[in-house]
Amino acid sequence: MIRVLLADDEDLIRAAVAALLALEPDLEVVAQAADGRTAVDAALAHRPDVAVVDLEMPALDGLRVAAELATALPSCAVVILTGRGRPAHLRRALTAGARGFLAKGAPGGALADVIRRVHAGARYVDPALAADALTAPECPLTPRELEVLRLAGPDAPVTATARRAHLSEGTVRNHLAAVVQKLGVTSRAEAYRTAREHGWL
To answer: Could you list the residue range(s) of the whole structural domain that residue 9 is in?
Structure first.
């Protein structure tokens, strides 16, 4: 039996996936979690063979869960399941140590097949997303600019952002101006939206 952990903050989706996997004779769901921190704790307690985690969850997102498990429980292969995958998410997921990346809109039996593949040591990436990743633009922003934009959001005051980033207000303004210029947009809100759409944040 392949022991599986499921982590998704949407109860209905988690229950549906668990019911789907219960139909497979060689798969057993041994733990479920509604957020990333609980997922890591449950993985360490139950030691599953494969963890299927949502990309966007409270406490820790799927990428951070993958990174933590790659260190704390390397025997557990991680599959990222997402409804809003972007090429940048794919690159970051593979860098974090995920072995699989699958869209929630995939055919019903696809997840079970992916679980078997990654358990056997292979990787799986959604073909459409892999094709998009080959032609997607690289993020032109530096890690610091991305962090400032993430903290600033579309409209947080510069003062609050500077405090959270441990930077001066002038430095935050300079970073945000550089972000707007590099992305070729006219406002911080538009820059934030563009970065979110590309999966850079």
So the answer is: 2-134
